[in-house]
Write the structure tokens for this entry.
Amino acid sequence: MSLSDALSILCIALIFAGLFFVLTGTIGVLKFKDLYTRMHAISKGTTFGFMFVLIGCAGLMGTPMDMGKALLAILFQFLTAPIASHMVGRVAMKKGIRPISSPDDEAPGVPASTVIRAPGAE
Amino acid sequence: MEYFTLPLQLAALAILGLSLVLVMYRVLHGPHILDRVMCIDGVALIVVCLIAVWNVRSGTTFFFDSILLLAIAGFVSTVAVCKYLERGDVIE
């Protein structure tokens, strides 16, 4: 087995590791009960899997131009994903969506998962 | 390249399609509009992964430029909707 064979097997393993992270992130989006925890799942898990999938695909493609484009996309995603999720969290806090908390520090009379709907959202 | 056989390609595309369906459930049924917005961002990310895997599968580099465009579109749409919800206006 030569070096390039080992490298391509490594790239395939990277692709499937990234697919695992993407799938777990989306399952978290489906299963979590709160907007903040869902945001956590999709912004961390999917971005992390995205990095692995693109590195693996760039390694399999092999040309330096495509590797540069994939690295640029990864860099851009890593710069912008925290900004986007931070903005979503700030808007949710301003809209009055309460995070799910422990039963101790619940405000009296207000259930923890109260969702105050934005105007226009059904 | 020859190790990325057809069952592996189909498995990768199937996993990405399954995660796309799961995210689209949250986009369609999300209780709040912010759920839908951030899941649309996730849809853009998964479609980028799908394009990358499809490029490797088909052996062309034809669609590789659209990766950057889709990543930018997802981020800009999230920021625009968040600004609209926060201030009632996108461009001030």
